[in-house]
Design goal:
- About 25% of the residues lie in helices and about 40% in strands.
- With about 130 residues, it is of the alpha+beta class.
- The protein has one domain: Hotdog Thioesterase (Thiol Ester Dehydrase, Chain A).
- It has a 5-stranded antiparallel β-sheet with strand order 1-3-4-5-2.
- A hairpin with a 2-residue loop joins β4 and β5.
- It is elongated, with a radius of gyration of 16 Å.
- The N and C termini lie close together (about 10 Å).
- The relative contact order is 0.23.
- The mean pLDDT is about 95.
Length: about 130
């Protein structure tokens, strides 16, 4: 299953040349990941409050392929690539129409809110299973 999240490029997202500043792609994919998790029916605030569990980015491998510009309408697509007991890996791409502008592979880990490693909650793993590519 691919999750799609629309983004419009605002002036604040760009540099002096009117091109999206490279770090803002990370913000775009973060927003899309939050919506992907929400779309799975998982409430991250409740997960932290009730179980002391949070997700953290462990690794990002990113390729900047083409520039996005002021007022572009973009789509961030998110796909689950892998899942283990304590981590999951996503592929995220930013598209303008059918043109791929940015591609990232993101590894997220599960942590107790103290920072210690934790297992992914069983409920979350069940919701991930049908989404594996």
């Amino acid at each position: 299953m691919t999750h799609s999240f629309p983004i419009r490029v605002y002036y604040e997202d760009t540099d002096l040349a009117g091109i999206v500043y490279y770090a803002n792609y990370l913000k775009f994919i973060e927003r899309a990941r939050s919506e992907w998790v929400r779309g799975l029916g998982l409430d991250q605030t409740a997960l932290k409050r009730d179980q002391g569990i949070v997700f953290a980015v462990r690794r990002v491998e990113a390729d900047y392929l083409r520039p996005a510009k002021f007022e572009d309408v973009l789509t961030v697509e998110t796909r689950l690539l892998a899942e283990t007991g304590a981590r999951f890996v996503l592929e995220q791409e930013v598209l303008r129409g059918g043109e791929r502008l940015f591609l990232a592979q993101v590894t997220l880990v599960c942590l107790h809110d103290t920072g210690a490693p934790a297992r992914l909650p069983a409920e979350f793993r069940r919701k991930l299973a049908p989404n594996l590519h």
